[in-house]
Amino acid sequence: MAKTLSFTDTSAQTVKIGDTTTSFTLICGDDNGATDLTNATSITVKLGNDSGYLKSATVDPASLTDPTTGQVTVTFNADLMTSLTAGSYAIEVWVVDSTGTSIYPSDGSTGFTITNNIQSANGATITTITFDDFVNKFNSLTANVMSKTIDTTNFQKRKITGDDGHAILQVNFGDDFYKKVLSLGLGFYTFECTDSAMNKPFDSAWTRGLIFIDSLDSNNVPNAVMIHATDTNGTFYSCDYHNGWTINKQIKSTSGTLNLTSAFSGTLNYVLTGNLLHVSGYVSPSANLAAGTATVLFNLPSSIGTIAESVAVVQQSSGWNLYCLAWSPNGAVSVLKHNTAGTATAITTSTQLQVCADILLK
Q: Is the entire prediction scored with pTM above 0.70?
């Protein structure tokens, strides 16, 4: 028969170091039925762990409340707890009667746990301070990371922008941009450059951006500079300095369709890159255009820009005939027909005009 050993439903299964009043109540059984301990002459409870046997305690058979239930109670008194540390343990019950010695359980062992009490480890005391003390200490700490405080080794406190939100480096009317940049030290800077500043990599437009300097020469002059900036026209600049400046410029482009006057039908598309307007497409007159007469093809919207100069260019129409496309600063772009000999002739509604021109804007 298999011998079993289990805790009663109400029994403790854990005891803390220093507790000498906790007891475990165990049930000795055979094939999960309670063992009658009425004829027991001695009962010994033995403890061990992974290292092996540790110690034991005896239980007087006469102290059993009801031997027929197989219940054995062991109290963890001071003698039993001595030298036991926190951890997992195994427990067995050895019962001797007239037939011999029975060991419960017959397979493996039953486990219990010893845990530390609150005094098993020394804690740290908590220092109390007043609210005013806390505020003063906080102000002291934050003061060290603000600008205009005493420098600490390898501790940068330069502001990215001014208190008013403007850039740290201001390049104003007549200022030399490159000279100002090469007067800076190591670090990261914001800058604003007016359209009237001198010696700059930017077009004549207000520009702002970032400067990063990560190397100085033996005279403490920057020899490794990176600049990223954007002007009010949307042009992006990427500039690098290493024994000379390298400038890359990406001009902002927009595109769309132009509205023709009622004198023409068709489609004209445009691409605006910086101040250069490229116009292309195919159009036909809505009615025959009189020879030598300039007829407005489209008026340039002010939202796109203003034409900078008066220009006339030769364009091609269907049948390899030529015509002129002309524009002026008033914003009108017009069509005038000539034949290959230069004589003015009419443009009929069956004529398809190919338009391809670049117009300079202010």
A: no
